[in-house]
Amino acid sequence: MPLPPNAAPSGPLAGLRVFDLTRVLAGPTATQMLGDLGAEVIKIEHPTRGDDTRGFAPPYLRKPSGEPSTESAYFAGVNRNKLSVTLDIARPEGQALARQLIALCDILVENFKPGGLAKYGLDYPSLKETYPGLIYCSITGFGQTGPYAPRPGYDALIQAMGGVMSLTGEPDGLPQKVGIPIADLFAGLYGTIGILAALRHRERTGQGQHIDISMLDTHVAWLANQGMNYLATGENPPRLGNQHPNIVPYQVFATADGAIMLAIGNDPAFERFCRAFGLDHLVADERFATNAKRVENRALVTDTLTPVLKSKTTAEWIAALEALSIACGPINRLSDVFADPHVKARGMVISMEHEGVGGPIPLIANPVKLSATPPDYRIAPPSLGAHTERVLHDLLGLSHAAIAELRAKGVV
């Protein structure tokens, strides 16, 4: 069967097809990445509700007139390069259609609670015998096993349980979550990595497999140096605000007109800093001479450098420090980020025509730069059910009359 119009993909995953049973953020992050890399993604949505994030608004995408549309900005952020097909999998007819589509797919991604798809016959045990080559990725809050497996998972909950909130915030303040939903995003990205590994395995053996992604697991995995600091010492790392647990100075300092992030990552850079700004005496002071000593005397280093950094404006510091190859940067707002000439030069904002909006919409680009097979932006984040007719007709061969009947029944 031919692909629906405007959906012929290119990229390293071109020719692969994904049955997307995900919603909100973690799962859609994974499937958008697959779509950007060339896979054809068939996003299954409830006929009336759609993905939950269609209702996570305002803000809405804006029409060319400047008026808000009915399309959620949240949804648009993780649902490009997908064909939206409405299908009620709680209905027997919907389950039958789902299985017909799965038969044409290489990958299935879902983020229902463990066992949630079993009653529809769409869980991995129900499908693996019929579709032995199917790569089936489940993304949940706590995974398919363990005492917490039945619990629902939410980003803030995972940040709390996974430890990052205990590390984030000022020492004398409350624990803080990160300002973006990192638990969801990391789970989606780890899910993509697992899918790519499973594709390589299938290439060698012909066999698919089940990928079990837990938001809590992935959260623990990226505790990185802080997790290792605990495992090495048995001591809980304290909250340090904007300071680094293992490097000093590596933190925010106030300037004459704002603030700056100063990241002095090694001893030679610290010496250059001292000699350039009249602090030669610190080079000979053993409390400042090495990073280990500076970490040990963190408060002294901070107190000593604070008045120095307040002596110049942010722009003056950036110019002076960049000339010395010392890492530093402004504390940008999002308006500054998207106006930054480097961000622009790297093409990190794209524009796509959106039928539901009636014009172009801005989107954040895929950051993966591939020299031969770059990300392929071919389908704007779809309106609910925008591709139902074409997918069911072109891929499954259903007549338009049969689709109209299914629509009248509420199946699609």
Structure report:
The longest helix is centred in the middle third of the chain and has 24 residues, at 182-205. This protein is an alpha/beta fold and 412 residues long. β12 and β13 (359-364) form a beta hairpin. It is 37% helix and 16% strand. Residues 1-5 have low confidence and may be disordered. It folds into two domains: 17-222 and 350-409, Crotonobetainyl-coa:carnitine coa-transferase, domain 1 (Rossmann fold), CATH 3.40.50.10540; 250-339, formyl-coa transferase, domain 3 (2-Layer Sandwich), CATH 3.30.1540. It is built from 18 helices and 13 strands. The strands form four sheets. Strands 5-2-1-6-7-8 form a six-stranded parallel sheet, with helices on both faces. Strands 9-10-11 form a three-stranded antiparallel sheet, covered by helices on one side. Strands 3-4 form a two-stranded antiparallel ribbon.
Give the topology:
Elements: E1 17-21, H1 26-36, E2 40-45, E3 60-62, E4 68-72, H2 73-77, E5 82-86, H3 92-102, E6 107-110, H4 124-127, E7 135-140, H5 155-161, H6 164-167, H7 182-205, E8 209-214, H8 215-221, H9 224-233, E9 250-254, E10 259-263, H10 267-276, H11 280-283, H12 291-296, H13 298-309, H14 314-323, E11 327-330, H15 334-339, H16 341-345, E12 349-354, E13 359-364, H17 388-394, H18 400-409
Parallel strand pairs: 1-2, 1-6, 2-5, 6-7, 7-8
Antiparallel strand pairs: 3-4, 9-10, 10-11, 12-13
